[in-house]
Amino acid sequence: MIVLSPDRDLTHRLLALRAGAAAFFAAPLDSYRIAARIDELLGRQDAPPYRVLIVEDDRNLAVQCGQWIAAEGMTARIAPHGSAAIAALAEFQPDAVLIDDSLPDARGIDLVQVMRQQAESATLPIILPATAGDAAERFDAIAAGADEVLVKPLKARHVVGVIRSRVQRAQWLRAQAEAGAARDPKSGFYPRSLVIDRIAGRIGTQGSSLMMIQFDDVAALRGQVGLSAMGTVDVEVGSRLRELLANHDMACGLRDFAWLVLLTRDRRELLTQLAERLRFAIVERPLAIGNTPVSISASIGLVALDDVATDANSAVLAAERACNDAQARGGNIALWSELEDATQTDPVLAVRAVLSRPLDPRNLRVEYRPLVPLKGSLHDQFDFEFFLGSAANGGSRGSYALSARVASELGQSSALERSRFEIAFAAREEARDERHALRFLMPVTSSWLLDTAEMDWLFEAMSKRQLAGGGFTFELTGAELLDHRDVLNAPIARLRDAGVRFGLSDYGRDFAAVHVLTQLPVDVLRLDPELLDATASANSTSPTLIALVRKAHQLGAMVVAPGMNTLENAHIFMRLGIDYGVGNAFGPALTQPDFDFNRPLW
Fold first, then answer.
1. CB 527 within 8 A of CB 558
2. Given a cut of 70, is residue 394 above it in pLDDT?
3. Which helix (H) or strand (E) holds 252?
């Protein structure tokens, strides 16, 4: 049930909620928000039907928790005592268990220990309530094996949120363990079916790519090596790949003398460099087949998965075509798969075409990257990555910086910025309705900050939606900060008074900008990616980087390191005192700002 009200009367809202309404909208009505909420509610039908066992002897409280869980599309079963809970484990097979601390036949902590001793429930998420302020009770619950402790009195958003996050975390850990167990112990290759499934999940994701490696002159090699030696070839190739691939990369055999590698990197040039290094590692020395060294050459084809508009099979075919093109040019090279129509792959042309007509929501795309705490402690912070481009071809898109530049040339800056912020507003409102606070880091331009009409619109829009400015951090480049530092003082002061935070997006690129920071308050300093590339290993720690981190902390700003592609980088940067990391080491870009910040990093 959705309730529409002719005004913003608080009584109407309270009556609607009391009647069980799933959503409430007051005039003036926003059809896009209403449609989005309807889509969300209908989407619950497709939500994972988690099964939750509630072990609680208080019938009223158990029923209330069951109603909260059922409202989210999950199934709840009530067990009034410990013995009934043990019996329900095998029959009901719950995805999570909520256990009261005091039961008629057992303590909640004792029941947790019994469950943990059974193999089938060793990884089952278990949640216990605890009395507020009783630290000893919470410590005992965690020591007994509980995954989470909720403070009484229980609230719907806490119960549902914890169940979702803990079940998702448990499923992720099981998937990682199953994937690791499925790897061939000798070659390190994953099963082909598993890699194909993972490719499907990366379609349309920025930074994900598929690589195909194939030996040149396969017919001659097959006669020289023979089929009986294919296992040896896989082991040899796997060992050479393993030296250069990251932990989150996945490789598998495709057919004889051909392999697939699923990769995630922030920038295309990093993938190109990796392809050349892999090719060289494979061909630099002959294969040892028996007592006979076999010289080889190999070609590599790459395809960006955000260029593939259909499915995993199309991605594999595109990588194979690129590999065949490389062999047609003589072999022993790496080539990217390119679409035939250059006008469709040129981001500038795609952005210009989109901005030459009224903006269509299908041309707008946002991806979210979590700011994972290394030394910092704030959760629920995301990079708000905005793209504009072709609706038909996901690869034909331009970044915010490119889109803002083209929009300025065409006089469409206002339409672009307002469309971008409407998406951010909707995401924050949805999170707020779930009693959840989001913080977005968004790049902005100085021309937009200096446009009084746009600032008035922003304040009016946030006031209308009752959104606090603290949910936004606006980032400027060092060049814009230096060129406009005098005139930026007034709009920045106005926004900071509303709670908006500010940051520098390329900290360390221009040391003149570092000096200016002492005169302009900043909250977030994002290190320049090129500076971080020079500190990719523990043996090359840059004194400049250490000095920049110390300077940032002296200014009271948190430091963000972008482009973290491996957890090894995260270890290094954490030791340097960097507060937050962003990158593919923590997973691919997200289509929704939904990330388990409690998930262990290593």
1. no
2. no
3. strand 250-255
Residue 395 predicted with pLDDT over 70: no
Local structure of residue 186 (DSSP, 8 states): T
How large is the C-alpha radius of gyration of the chain? 27
DSSP one-letter string for 556-574: T-EEEE----SHHHHHHHH
Cβ–Cβ < 8 Å for 441, 480: no
Nearest alpha-carbon partner for 94 in 67, 111, 115, 63: 115
Q: What are the pLDDT digits (tens) for 539-588?
A: 445 677 888 899 899 889 999 999 887 777 777 788 788 999 998 878 77
Q: How far apart are CA 290 and CA 287, in angstroms?
A: 9
| Residue recorded with tokens 């294919």 | 230
Q: What angle do CA 385, 389, 394 make, to 5 degrees?
A: 85
Give the whole-angstrom CA distance, residue 442 versus residue 472.
7
Cross-strand partners of 383: 369, 441
Can you list the domains of the chain with their CATH numbers?
1-46 (no CATH), 47-177 (3.40.50.2300), 192-338 (3.30.70.270), 366-385+425-586 (3.20.20.450)
CB 303 within 8 A of CB 315: yes
Question: 38-52, 102-116, 226-240, 269-283: which range is least confident on average?
Answer: 38-52
| Token couple for 430 | 């949805």
Give 467 or 226, the one with higher predicted confidence. Answer: 467
Q: Is 246 left (phi over 0), alpha (psi -120 to 50) or beta?
A: beta
Candidate from 76-85, 115-124, 462-471 with smallest mean pLDDT: 115-124
Count Cβ neighbours within 10 Å for each residue of 124-140 and write b for 16 or more, e otherwise.
bbbbbbbeeeeeebbeb
Inter-residue contact 523 to 558 (CB < 8 Å): yes
- State the burial class of residue 342 (Cβ atoms within 10 Å of its Cβ: 0-12, 13-18, 19+): exposed
